[in-house]
Write a structure and sequence with these properties.
This protein has 16 helices and 10 strands. The radius of gyration is 19 Å and the shape is globular. The chain is an alpha/beta fold. Helices cover 44% and strands 16% of the residues. The longest helix has 20 residues. 49% of the residues are buried. The protein has a 5-stranded mixed beta sheet, with helices on both faces. A 5-stranded mixed beta sheet has the order 7-6-8-5-9.
Length: 337
């Protein structure tokens, strides 16, 4: 029986990360007048619920926009699509704009609308731990993320802040692709897992893992996931960027005024492999953890916190100007509406 439960859990996790397509759009005559906007999201995740709410609730459409959503499955891939003009807007971590800037790009990528304000990953243990302490990672192995990614930098930052030296006190496994990490953990790899939801909830439901800590709560607020575009796009299409940001703000208002059950019902089409009760539990966890920004404004203090984390990880090569990489004009206007 337990073998059967394990197979179901593995299949569910695998099915989740195979989801790449969003719900089909209505090809009515009225939609022909909409402005098409190509959006590349880094991964498909419940963490990005405001984006799916904006699509499903018709907020983008009411602003005259037709969103063509693509899932890149990787921050580097999403950024490549943006730089190659295969996408107009990308939903990625703000740190990617710093990397592009450090490489001397002539057309900078600018962050203009914040979606999440904390790291969205959780620490999953194989057994229940009632009184968790980060020192319990010492001598253990942790399935983590790739070097230079924000999840990995946050993880290392939190460990150091709690007296745990990454790669010395704890072995961090980094050779497993994101979409295979939860499956690998369920199969026996690692003592702990840095997981994005709903992987943690699915593992808990199957009795194969238990969430014991939140990386987001222990690392503070930062512009973890934002909408961004090339500076040239923002300059040439300010009306479209404003309409896009207006829709994002409407979705954020919905997220913060709705129950987990209501939000789950709206975004369910994007997570067909996830049970409604799991989806609801994850949304509640994110709401309780203050993961979603209440407005799209990218705060300078939070941006500075992200830079501090990058510097601690050795990924910040030079000083970075907030004014060069952040535009709050559209978010501030959307907030006032």
């Amino acid at each position: 029986m337990r073998r059967s439960i394990q197979m179901v859990a593995l299949s569910t996790i695998a099915a989740l990360f195979a989801l790449t397509a969003c719900a089909p759009s209505d090809n009515s005559a009225s939609e022909e007048k909409l402005t098409q906007v190509r959006v590349s999201e880094v991964i498909r995740s419940i963490f990005y619920a405001p984006q799916y709410v904006a699509i499903e609730q018709g907020y983008f459409k009411s602003e005259g926009l037709d969103i063509q959503l693509d899932t890149a499955w990787g921050g580097d891939k999403a950024m490549t699509r943006l730089l190659a003009d295969q996408a107009d807007i990308a939903l990625i971590g703000a740190e990617t704009t710093v990397y592009v800037g450090q490489q001397g790009a002539s057309d900078k990528v600018v962050n203009f609308a914040q979606v999440t304000q904390r790291d969205g990953s959780f620490l999953v243990a194989r057994n229940k731990i009632d009184n968790w302490d980060w020192s319990m990672l010492k001598g253990k192995s942790l399935v983590g993320s790739r070097k230079g990614s924000m999840p990995e930098m946050v993880s290392e930052y939190v460990l150091k802040q709690n007296g745990v030296t990454p790669f010395s006190d704890v072995n961090i496994i980094q050779n497993i692709t994101f979409d295979n990490q939860a499956t690998a953990f369920a199969s026996g790899t690692g003592d702990f897992l840095q997981a994005f939801e709903p992987s943690g909830a699915i593992l808990e439901q199957a009795g194969q893992g238990y969430v014991v800590a939140s990386f987001g709560q222990d690392s503070g607020k930062l512009p973890y996931t934002v909408f961004m575009a090339k500076a040239s796009t923002i300059k040439s299409e300010p009306t479209t960027i404003q309409k896009f940001t207006n829709a994002v703000q409407k979705a954020q208002n919905f997220i913060h005024s709705s129950t987990p059950e209501e939000v789950a019902k709206v975004i369910q089409p994007y997570f067909e492999g996830v049970e409604s009760k799991v989806l609801t539990a994850v949304i509640k966890r994110y709401q309780d953890g203050d993961a979603w920004a209440k407005d799209a404004v990218i705060d300078q203090e939070e941006f500075s916190n992200m830079l501090a984390i990058m510097k601690e990880a050795g990924e910040l090569n030079a000083d970075v100007s907030y004014q060069d990489l952040v535009n709050t004009e559209f978010a501030e206007k959307a907030k006032r509406q």
